[in-house]
Write a structure and sequence with these properties.
Length: about 210
């Protein structure tokens, strides 16, 4: 006779005996050779994703490019990536790779290397600026609080990685995304804080100091 005090046997639909929780807790995981598997509890092997990222990344565009060689066409991928810290640091990188992952990784590394720190006036830029990079011509103007970011796709993606909340922008030249991205970064680089403006008042103050 079966012992009534023993735990009920749980059988799966396939007819095999299901292991109870108490039995599973006492079992030791083993590999294919029968050796017990060691658990990796080292502190230095914590996943990198657990820590907060210093910079946010946005892949603006991915293109498939090719070049003709002796054996035919060689296909590659070109990635345009922007990174920023949601404050006053931003960078843009463009790189090619044999696959999309490699191209994005190269572009991200290049963007980190070419990061800039620019001046801000509250939550907008300090002054109006127009920058040209080859055929791209980007105009950016400061805006009043509550205006938001009035800009196209590439400009909006880059400005969204900064602390700028109010901006008016217009692309006047080429629609090449790489050139527009570099034009936006150059416009942010040219920002001069209000206290350093070369205005009439500052000129008069400088003349009084020299007298």
């Amino acid at each position: 006779m079966a012992d009534k005090t023993s735990e009920p046997r749980v059988i799966n639909k396939s007819g095999t005996l299901k292991m109870t929780d108490k039995v599973a807790a006492t079992k030791e995981a083993r590999d294919m050779s029968g050796r017990p598997m060691r658990r990796n509890n080292r502190r230095d092997r914590v996943k990198a994703d657990a820590a907060p990222k210093e910079f946010e990344e946005v892949t603006i565009n991915i293109d498939r490019v090719s070049r003709t060689v002796a054996g035919g066409r060689r296909m590659r991928f070109k990635a345009l990536v922007a990174i920023g810290n949601k404050k006053n640091k931003v960078g843009v990188g463009c790189a090619k790779g044999n696959d999309v992952t490699t191209a994005v990784a190269k572009a991200t590394a290049k963007a980190k290397k070419n990061m800039i720190t620019f001046a801000m006036d509250g939550e907008t830029i300090c002054h109006e600026v127009e920058t040209k990079v080859t055929g791209a011509d980007v105009l950016m103007k400061p805006a009043a609080p509550g205006t938001g970011i009035i800009a196209g796709g590439v400009v909006r993606s880059i400005i969204g990685l900064t602390g700028i909340k109010n901006l008016i922008s217009k692309s006047l030249g080429s629609t090449n995304k790489v050139n527009i991205a570099y034009a936006v970064v150059e416009g942010l680089r040219q920002q001069v804080p209000r206290e350093k403006w070369n205005t009439t008042a500052t000129k008069k103050a400088a003349k009084k100091e020299t007298k």
